[in-house]
Structure formats: structure tokens, C-alpha cells
Specification:
Strand order of the largest sheet: 7-8-9-14-15-10
Order of helices and strands: EHHEEEEEHEEEHEEEEHEHE
Strand content: 25-35%
Structural class: alpha+beta
Oligomer: single chain
Number of domains: 2
Radius of gyration: 19 Å
Largest sheet: 6 strands, mixed
Helix content: 10-25%
Distance between the termini: 30 Å
Length: 260
């Protein structure tokens, strides 16, 4: 039975025309599935369904999602991270190498809901564990984390009550109901690459995931080391964000959920 599948040109190029045609004919595609983004049931015989291909160094995994959640796409991920996703491993809050500095500074990330104009928005707060030096410099105690992000299109935030503007080409990857990566545009017209990537998929709350699926947008805030800290509650996280904004130590951007 034919399925209501969307197979992008990128996915078709990876899996081949023969496999893509079999999927569209319903030979290899499941009827029912759990959406790789929102984790709620879907039916490729009844609703538009996206094919999402996760590609590592040696492993490739074809997943399915509501077309209303994410488009059909190829997502490049690290091999160990992809295998972790397959096993649905959950663990401690990840800390990963950041791409902003030459010393591979570690970025910590926290998820939470932020109230703006009476509506709860899913947010990620990124803070390095050490100052970030500009690539090509030896580092002299300065911190170029915010200038580097501003050069990438993030904007300074003086008021957390104002919604950040959209940052073109960046996206937040939520797959199999967990947070996997923040993606940035690849160089030379290539596909998206991970700016931040979880060692192990990061569990988010049902409320966070529901808000993200509703808006299809995630707000990403970033601050230099020592600006936010690990806050145990969302009200304390909001207070820390407001203090960082008041000191001119906060940048932010809105990113589509798993968009390319």
C-alpha cells in the first residue's frame, strides 16, 4: 500500500532510487511509527510523513517523523552519538567540545521554559566552562565567546522579555524525543554540522518538548563562563538570564526545531 512519505532529494541520494521507490510504494516503510521528533504515534498511510536519515561515519539510521514536525532531511552526526541514539541511551547532562575556540573549550547546556509575552517558549542556555579564545590566538585571559557568536548572527539581549530574532541556517535537533545537537551551516555550501553535540542524548521534559512541537522553534541563549551557572529551577534560571542581560553578557537567537 503506497505511503504518504516525503523523501527529500538528499535522502534519496543517500539511500538510492531503488530503496526510495520501495519506501514510497510501502514495501519497506512502516504503517505506524513513533515520530523521531515528538515521540507521539504517526501513521504513514494516513498522514504526511518525513523520512529522516541520520548518518554517522559507519552507521546510517532511517527514521520517520510527522511532516508537520520536521522535513525530510539528512542529518550528519558523530558515530558514537548515533549509536547512542539507536540504543536510546540517556545519561547525565552532556558537556561537549565547542567549535568557537582553539582549545576545544567545553560547553554546558541547560534546557528550560522561558515566559515571553505570556507564552512559554522552549529554550536552551549555553555557557562555556572556561573563557573562549578567538581561533588563531594563544589566549591571554580574554574571552571572545560573545563576539564570536555575534559574528555568527546571534544578537545581544538586553531584555529577556523580548523574543530573539531567527538565525538563518542554524537549527536545534531533537530526535527520538531527546536533544541531540545544535546545528550550524556547513562551509562551502555543505550540509549542517554540529556546533554543540551531546555525548549522549539529553532528556528534555514533556513540557519543553510539547512547547517546541507547538512553536517549531527553540530559543538559544548564550553567556560567557560564570554568567549563568547551573540553576536547579526555571525561576532561578530566568533570574540568572535577566542579570546576564542587564550586564550586557547575553546573546540569543531563535532556531527552527530540527530545521536545515
Amino acid at each position: 500500500m503506497p505511503r504518504m512519505l516525503d523523501v527529500s532529494e538528499d535522502v534519496r541520494a543517500e539511500i538510492g532510487d531503488e530503496e526510495a521507490d520501495r519506501l514510497l510504494a510501502g514495501e519497506n516503510a512502516p504503517g505506524s511509527y513513533d515520530c523521531t521528533s515528538c515521540r507521539t504515534p504517526g501513521d504513514s498511510g494516513q498522514e504526511r510523513t518525513s523520512t529522516v536519515l541520520f548518518v554517522g561515519e559507519e552507521t546510517a539510521v532511517l527514521a520517520f517523523a510527522h511532516a508537520s514536525c520536521i522535513p525530510s532531511q539528512v542529518v550528519q552526526v558523530a558515530e558514537d552519538q548515533l549509536q547512542g541514539a539507536v540504543r536510546s541511551i540517556t545519561g547525565e547532562e552532556p558537556q561537549v567540545p565547542g567549535s568557537a575556540g582553539p582549545e576545544q573549550a567545553v560547553l554546558g547546556i541547560t534546557s528550560g521554559l522561558v515566559l515571553i509575552e505570556g507564552e512559554l517558549h522552549p529554550a536552551l542556555v549555553v555557557e562555556p566552562t572556561a573563557p573562549i579564545a578567538r581561533p588563531g590566538t594563544t589566549g591571554n585571559g580574554g574571552d571572545d565567546f560573545l563576539p564570536l557568536l555575534i559574528e555568527q548572527g546571534f544578537l545581544p539581549i538586553s531584555d529577556v522579555n523580548q523574543r530573539p530574532s531567527q538565525l538563518s541556517g542554524w537549527s536545534v535537533l531533537v530526535a527520538m524525543g531527546q536533544l541531540h545537537a545544535v546545528l550550524q551551516p556547513g562551509t562551502g555550501g555543505g550540509g549542517p554540522v554540529a556546533w554543540w553535540q551531546a555525548h549522549q542524548p539529553l532528556q528534555v521534559t514533556d513540557g519543553w518538548r510539547a512547547a517546541a512541537n507547538k512553536s517549531h522553534t527553540v530559543l538559544v541563549f548564550a553567556a560567557p563562563v560564570g554568567s549563568i551557572g547551573q540553576q536547579p529551577r526555571e525561576d532561578l534560571l530566568r533570574e540568572a538570564l535577566e542579570k546576564a542581560a542587564a550586564r550586557g553578557r547575553l546573546v540569543a537567537a531563535a532556531m527552527p526545531l530540527a530545521g536545515t
